[in-house]
Write a structure and sequence with these properties.
heterodimer; A: 195 residues; mainly alpha; Rna Polymerase Sigma Factor, Chain: A; Arc Repressor Mutant, subunit A; 2 domains; 69% helix; B: 47 residues; alpha+beta; two-stranded antiparallel sheet; elongated; transcription (chain A)
Chain lengths: 195, 47
């Protein structure tokens, strides 16, 4: 198993295209969390997320089997872009606005565990989290997207640039302006973000 | 930013699709055969 984990994506893809079906399973196991997490960050509905995840890999499989894949070494960004397009299609089809967060079903606080904090500190921390999320929501869409992908989804700037279809410098620039704007909003509203 | 307020590692990393979804994808992959005849492409799903 250790050897399989270290096998580069490009080699697994080559194996899969050559007929080794188990290579696909390794690729899915390796990247499922990131891809599914990305979809779930846009659509907080497990059933829809499973459908989009499934449709994403159906497209991946079809493309690979028709030998239409030519981006060796960039498997994850390629799959993420397919997932991103399917998420956009879903919102277009349902005429809903994307980037909805904080529903009864999903809240960032459900996943927070830090038993060492006192109840008071926990409340403060929760409030800080909520404040930050509210502040982020006030940013322009392009800056908000970069902030969320970088800090909430843990994507690299390279991955962000490939998913959003802009250069790395543009993604970096958006992050820079996002941080500047966050500071402006915090100063303007006298928000205290300390615990 | 001096401090990151997000708890991304706790929140996003554990998100995974259902076992049934993965199983479907792998079965689909095994069943799908794509044949090119000239300019035409035929998809066949075998059980």
């Amino acid at each position: 198993m250790a050897n399989k984990v270290q096998t580069p994506d490009a080699i697994l893809l080559h194996d899969y295209i050559s007929g080794n079906e188990s290579a696909l399973q390794i690729l899915i196991e390796r990247h499922q969390s990131k891809i599914y997490g990305f979809i779930y960050s846009k659509i907080q509905d497990r059933t829809v997320c499973d459908d989009i995840f499934q449709d994403t890999f159906i497209k991946v499989i079809k493309t690979l089997k028709t030998k239409g894949y030519s981006e060796e070494g960039k498997f994850l960004p390629w799959v993420m872009r397919i997932a991103s397009n399917l998420v956009i299609d879903y919102f277009r089809h349902n005429k809903k606005m994307p980037f909805q967060r904080e529903t009864d079903e999903y809240s960032i606080f459900n996943f927070m565990t830090d038993s060492s904090l006192s109840i008071e500190n926990q409340l403060i921390e929760n409030q800080v989290e909520l404040d930050v999320r509210k502040i982020v929501e006030q940013l322009p869409d392009d800056q908000k997207e970069v902030i969320k992908m970088r800090f909430y989804e843990d994507l690299s700037f390279k991955e962000i640039s490939e998913i959003t279809g802009v250069s790395i410098n543009t993604a970096l620039g958006r992050m820079r302006y996002a941080v500047i704007n966050l500071r402006k909003i915090i100063e303007k509203n006298n928000i205290i973000l300390t615990n | 930013m001096a401090k990151l307020y997000s708890k991304k590692r706790n929140s996003i990393k554990e998100m995974k699709p259902s076992a049934a979804t993965i199983s479907f994808i792998l079965s689909y992959s095994q069943a799908l055969k794509i044949v090119k005849v000239g300019k035409l492409t035929f998809d066949t799903l075998s059980n």
